[in-house]
Write a structure and sequence with these properties.
367 residues; 7-stranded mixed sheet; 16% strand; binds S-adenosylmethionine
Length: 367
């Protein structure tokens, strides 16, 4: 990343050795010491902000696709909406690039455990860190057995009680939020899956040394979410997205329509995301495009999705273009469903010129 910023050192700022404190106190990290010139520090924006990454791993998370998605961030936009938040890879990427400075962001998802966890990281961070530290210590000595003990003896019963009391994200207990992060960091592939009885039933992952408590990252995330310009809510996608107006940006990343019926891993929420939901999403996207909202959708290339977008005249008339890009897909219980597959991007934003290395076939498909 070549962008550089000249930032005037504030009166009390110092060059310090502990990089993790940098974001907290707006100090100049030691690694940029030789870039201090008089009262100024010159540093690459991306390197300085690199620790603000998602604190959850999420099935279908978009970190690997950021270079391709980033080409469709509009030059200018008003407010930002992300109605299928998950781990928020695009939100954090926009933030890291400074593209959200001075803007409001509305982050929503239908999964109340997920939104509840974000809210507790924002509001009760010290309690979360304290509990996670204990969970991490126990996990280091007891491993997978401990994962199953927490999942079955503590998380699911506490979750049942929370549901019995109404179960909204706003009232998500801090203990559940800490366990949710622990299970996410140590469970299989960042999956959140409930069985028919409403119990979280994801198996333990196979990690030799999972990073369970990353204090620096949690602090950065908490600080960003505490910004009064960031709103986090539990909401169905249409309710949140339909608030967007001309010039705003909405990024949609719904649960994938399965490429084949057996490849379905859509149960992020207990009800999944049906073909009917996919059709409704298309009408929302058309309505927003008609209002001159900048929209960006990523989805699978399942036949039902291609029929809704690639071979649909209304979509073309609305000024939306479809592009296929290669992506790695890891969420499939069957080995043949993993590996490189194509992903569909639908957007009314013109791509910015390429400024990074990409996969050969991307060069063919993105124009
Ligand atoms: C593919 S994931 C999003 C991944 C995210 N972009 C990331 O980088 O981690 C899809 C998300 O949609 C949420 N979701 C499913 N159905 C929904 C609905 N009807 N309304 C809002 N969110 C929904 C799921 O809870 C899940 O977090």
């Amino acid at each position: 990343m070549t962008t550089v910023v000249r930032r005037k050192l504030r009166a009390k700022e110092r060059v310090i050795d502990n990089d993790s404190l940098v974001r907290e106190y707006r100090l100049t990290p030691a690694k940029f010491r030789d870039q201090v010139q008089g009262d100024y520090t010159i540093f690459p924006v991306r390197r300085f902000d690199q620790d603000t990454r998602p604190f959850l791993k999420w099935a279908g998370g978009k970190r690997q696709l950021l270079p391709q998605l980033g080409r469709f961030y509009p030059e200018t936009f008003g407010r930002y909406f992300e109605p299928f938040l998950g781990s928020g890879a695009v939100f954090f990427d926009l933030f890291n690039q400074g593209r959200l400075t001075g803007k409001t962001a509305t982050l929503t998802d239908e999964n109340s455990d997920l939104i509840g966890t974000y809210l507790r990281v924002r509001d009760s961070l010290e309690a979360i860190i304290e509990r996670l530290t204990i969970l991490a210590r126990q996990h280091a000595s007891r491993g997978r057995d401990y994962y199953y003990e927490i999942r079955d003896t503590w998380f699911n019963p506490a979750r049942r009680e929370w549901r019995a009391r109404g179960g909204g994200a706003d009232s998500y207990p801090v203990d559940l939020a800490a366990m949710m992060i622990y299970l996410n960091r140590t469970g299989y592939n960042g999956l959140f899956r409930l069985n028919q009885a409403g119990k979280f039933n994801v198996p333990a992952g196979r990690y030799s040394a999972p990073r369970i408590v990353d204090v620096g990252r949690l602090r950065s995330v908490s600080r960003i979410l505490s910004d009064c310009a960031v709103e986090i809510r539990e909401a169905p996608f249409d309710e949140a997205a339909m608030r967007a107006e001309r010039g705003d940006l909405v990024y949609f990343d719904p649960p994938y329509a399965p490429l084949s019926r057996t490849a379905s891993f859509r149960s992020y929420t207990s009800n999944g995301f049906s073909d009917e939901n996919q059709r409704h999403l298309q009408t929302v996207i058309l309505a927003l495009a008609a209002r001159e909202v900048s929209v960006l959708l990523s989805n699978s290339t399942a036949p039902c999705v291609l029929a809704l977008y690639e071979s649909n005249r209304e979509v073309t008339r609305a000024g939306l273009r479809c592009r296929r890009i290669p992506a790695r897909r890891a969420i499939n219980s069957r080995a043949e469903g993993r590996g490189v597959v194509e992903e569909l991007l639908v957007t009314n934003v013109k791509p910015t010129p390429r400024n990074h290395e990409t996969h050969e076939s991307t060069k063919r498909t993105i124009k």
